[in-house]
UniProtKB/TrEMBL annotation:
PANTHER family reported for this sequence: LEUCINE DEHYDROGENASE, VALINE DEHYDROGENASE
InterPro entries according to UniProt: Aminoacid_DH-like_N_sf, Glu/Leu/Phe/Val/Trp_DH, Glu/Leu/Phe/Val/Trp_DH_C, Glu/Leu/Phe/Val/Trp_DH_dimer, Glu/Leu/Phe/Val_DH_AS, Glu/Phe/Leu/Val/Trp_DH_bac/arc, NAD(P)-bd_dom_sf
GO terms under biological process: amino acid metabolic process
Entry keyword set: NAD, Nucleotide-binding, Oxidoreductase
Domain called Glutamate/phenylalanine/leucine/valine/L-tryptophan dehydrogenase C-terminal: residue spans: 146-352
Protein name as catalogued: Leucine dehydrogenase
Length: 357
């Protein structure tokens, strides 16, 4: 077990939670609260080992810090994992025990949905803690974040088109979408509405058949989607899809999608740039979800209008990252890191300015 402080990679706090009776085993990682409470989803997954779970949660929580910082939110970064199979191990008691674990952190960590957890689960967790977002609308939450993530990804793709083609319109363009789940399917709908040609791939054949029927999308095998001759390749399934094997097969000018951690390794950002492909840094373009659930913490209460307006500005944020990348001679992913780090340093510093209560 790599429980040494050096492996915490700058994290403020990492909490291991255990409730024997319900079988709860969770790790809550708070990477940074410099800009605000550490918000990030709960992933429930049957990890092979506790070490795998720890590595995953540390990586994911750090990513949330950067995502919220670059997006201009007053949120820090955190993430949590529950070790277990969501199909067989998830019970009311386990989720409520987990909710009590979150409550014990008194708002330093705020949770939301991620792989293996759903809005209905947030409702159950929320019976034990004030710090669960993204529950169903009927339960008082803001609901499925896939809607806003898809809108932000769509707006972001248009910003990329503006940069590469000097024209943000997607009419007559061609986008290859990998993964048409909660985000990818809605992204396809936005693009089709604007007259964009679509090619899609998913391991779920019902999902692709639906888009072929409704939107006239072409369907290709999952192992070929990145090699489609299209303007944009949009990863919306799993991470690490931009790697040494896929980059030589890309035929697109733009890689822009919602999947987290698309670059298998940081150096692939430079490899893409050298190949003349514009990369929309994943945590910048996929911030629609965190904008949505983070708004539940707003002092005036949740506002769907404010969320939509903020999500629609994702295009401007990407454009600013592209300008920074060009000015500093950096791949776009590194430029995004710089923008996030500069904001954390400049705005986070203000916390040291004492305000009497
Ligand atoms: N939902 C959000 O608000 C949100 C926010 C930020 C980032 N993301 C990221 O966006 C991605 C998609 O999220 P989602 O909420 O749509 O998840 P989802 O589980 O609803 O959809 C993922 C889809 O990808 C498909 N898939 C799995 N393996 C595949 C493969 N090898 N090839 C092609 N398709 C495959 C699945 O069948 C599914 O239809 C994930 O990487 C997620 O982490 C989601």
């Amino acid at each position: 077990m790599p429980g040494t402080f050096s492996q915490l990679n700058g994290h403020e706090q990492v909490v291991f939670g255990h409730d024997e009776a319900s079988g709860l085993r969770c790790i809550i990682a708070i990477h940074s609260t410099v800009l605000g409470p550490a918000l990030g989803g709960t992933r429930m997954y049957p990890y092979d080992s506790e070490e795998d779970a720890l590595v995953d949660v540390l990586r994911l929580s750090r990513g949330m810090t950067y995502k919220s910082a670059v997006t201009g939110l007053d949120l820090g970064g955190g993430k949590a994992v529950i070790i277990g199979d969501p199909a067989t191990d998830k019970t009311e008691a386990l989720l409520r025990a987990y909710g009590r674990m979150i409550e014990s952190l008194n708002g330093r960590y705020v949770t939301a949905c991620d792989v293996g957890t759903y809005s209905a689960d947030m409702g159950i967790i929320g019976r034990e803690t004030r710090w669960a977002t993204g529950s169903e609308v009927v339960e008082g939450g803001s609901g499925d974040s896939g809607v806003m993530t898809a809108l932000g990804t769509y707006v972001g793709i248009k910003a990329c088109a503006e940069r590469v083609f000097d024209d943000a319109s997607m009419a007559g363009r061609h986008v290859a979408i990998q993964g048409v789940g909660k985000v990818g399917r809605r992204l396809a709908e936005h693009l089709a509405e604007e007259g964009c040609k679509l090619t899609v791939a998913d391991v779920n054949e019902d999902a692709t058949a639906d888009l072929a029927d409704r939107l006239g999308a072409d369907v290709v095998a999952v192992e070929d989607i990145h090699a489609v001759d299209a303007d944009v390749f949009s990863p919306n399934a799993m991470g690490a899809v931009i790697n040494d094997a896929t980059i030589p097969r890309l035929q697109c000018r733009i890689v822009a999608g919602a999947a987290n951690n698309q670059l298998a390794d940081a150096r692939h950002g430079q490899v893409l740039a050298d190949a003349g492909v514009l990369y929309a840094p994943d945590y910048v373009i996929n911030a629609g979800g965190v904008i949505q659930v983070g708004d539940e913490l707003h002092p005036d209460g949740y506002s769907a209008d404010r969320v939509r307006a903020r999500v629609e500005r994702i295009g401007e944020r990407l454009a600013a990252v592209f300008v920074t990348a060009e000015r500093e001679g950096l791949p776009t992913a590194e430029a995004a890191d710089h923008v996030a780090e500069e904001r954390m340093a400049a705005v986070g510093r203000l916390r040291s300015f004492h305000l009497p209560r």
